[in-house]
Amino acid sequence: MGPQTRGLIRLAILFTLVSATRGICPSKCTCNDKLLKAGCEYSNLEVVPIQLNPEIRTLKLNHNRIASIHLTFIFYKNLNELDLSHNKIKTLGSKNFEFQINLTNLNVSSNMVKQLHKDSFKGLKKLTVLDLSGNLIEEVSDRTSFKDLTNLEELNLSRNKIYMIETGVFDYLINLKRLIMHDNELLKVPENAVNTLNNLVEMDLNGNLIEDLSFPSNLNNLEVLKLRSNVITSLGNDSFSNLYRLKYLDLSDNNFTHVSKLQFSKLLHLEYLNLSSNLFRHLGPDSFRNLYKLTEVYIDNAVALRKVDSKLFIENINLKYVSLSNNANLKYLPKFLFLNKPKLKHIRISGNDFSTLDASDLPLDQLETLKIGRNPFKCNCSLLWLWILKERQMLNNCTCTDLSCYEACADAVPKPKKLSEESETVLGLAFHREVYPIILDLDEVYCEDYQNARRIPFKAAPKSSFDCTVTWVLILTAAVLATLFLFLLAVIAYILRIRCKRRAKNPVETFINATKSYEDTHHTYYRYGSNLRNGDVFEVLKSEQKIDVYGDKPATNMYIRTPLGKDSANSFPYAINRVDTEPRKQCRKQYSNASIPDAYLDAAGNYGMKNYMSETNIYQEPFAGPFPARTGQRPPHIVYV
């Protein structure tokens, strides 16, 4: 007879004796035979006690020094709940829970387990909750580890060192609803492992090393997704396209820099969204498009955030809680950001860089909580509404049964007849506060005194700091500034008018000599008539066509003008003049209507007079000297087209 056999015989004898006496409760344990519970927490135990009542259903052995569980639970077949957390267990072995067929809750967290074996959970067909968090597991590779756990609803693998989960490991967990794997070393979402979890409702992947997101198409029932504290750098437009029932999404503490209008647009059931501690600089009007059921949104600690569009929440009509705090570079609250949000009750905009806050930008008549502390406010007229709220808060804290109440609140605003009927308009905004005033964090609100480089508690600021009276000095200053502005506009208009009247003198580069009159006196380069010397011209001349080249510029934009003479149409030839090919925009019309020839050629090809011409008159003056020629280049000449 071997030693193992003798040990089993001794255990059987002991089990018989214990059963006969209904168990013996160790001195360090607490036993309740009526409730069938035994608790041996913090008892410095090194082994599992076997002399307890074998009928117990709840056994707590947490926070001890137990290192082995081999063949220790064969006496307790009726267990429903077993807590082995915070011990020194290194292995779960094989078939050590085979007789606990009624066990529903098993906690082995905060031990030293490194590996899951084939039959570690053999026989636990009724188990619904399994906690393996806080161990030393690096990979889950045995596909049969969870084979008997077909009724498992919650699996906790958090706070391990898991970097790899084999495909098919979770195939037997057909009823799993919660999968908790935060604080591991996963590099990606275990897409191939979770693709069979059709009933999964919550997946916690916080605190991993996930960079890119991809989810299988069959997570149709997933409602909660936690991805906080990963290294996600971008969100694709289809990242969440398969998660159309998602209600809770936490993407805080990641590295993505952009939020587009398509990234969340398919999450029609989303109610909670956390984008805090990311690197985006701007949130546009379509960032939360189609999120009609959104009730809570958190955009905190976004160190790069500089602008929030006023239409960011335009479609989020069911918002109840908005947190937009600790954004060091956000300098103002957009107007109308909270417009038409009838259910909005709580706003947190503390710790930003706001210097002022307009009452019209906040739904004060419906708010229950408003957190605005730790902003560098300039206490002036724009914060009078806050000063009045502060005074009202003081009044609401008074129970006015006699005159002593009013003496204690002597500095407050005029006494209301009844607080329940209070209604006052401040800066055009009506406050209707009955029993419950707005909860403010006034202890964290300060006025920045930049002149004296100090901060003044808002509660201590006098009413004079918020005086809205406009003095005559301000009126005079505004009038002077307006006058200077109008004068500057007049000077600019005058300069533009003078510049448009001046025309740059362009040298005549191209002439076409004619012997007969031409009917259209204002015909441009679209078509030349007939009977021009050396043949008729019927081609339409475009501005980009090269007529002649003088120097480095093509002669374009040709104009035909009236004959240079009053009586005889044949006494003078026509002159065609090139104008500026790129006139200033404000002068374009003037240039095109007033182009005139600077010189012309007579019938013999000689240079003639320099002429200035209007609609009705012709002016002539002597042309000074021959037409200038550039060094090394020929002078302009007649073009025979």
UniProtKB/TrEMBL annotation:
One of its GO terms (cellular component) is plasma membrane. InterPro entries: Dev_Immune_Receptor (IPR050328), Leu-rich_rpt (IPR001611), Leu-rich_rpt_typical-subtyp (IPR003591), LRR_dom_sf (IPR032675). Its main location: membrane. It comes from the Eukaryota. Keywords: Cell membrane, Leucine-rich repeat, Membrane, Repeat, Signal, Transmembrane, Transmembrane helix. It is found in: Cell membrane. The chain crosses the membrane at residues 472-496. Residues 1-23 form the signal peptide. PANTHER family: SLIT RELATED LEUCINE-RICH REPEAT NEURONAL PROTEIN, TIR DOMAIN-CONTAINING PROTEIN. This is Uncharacterized protein. It comes from Menopon gallinae (poultry shaft louse).
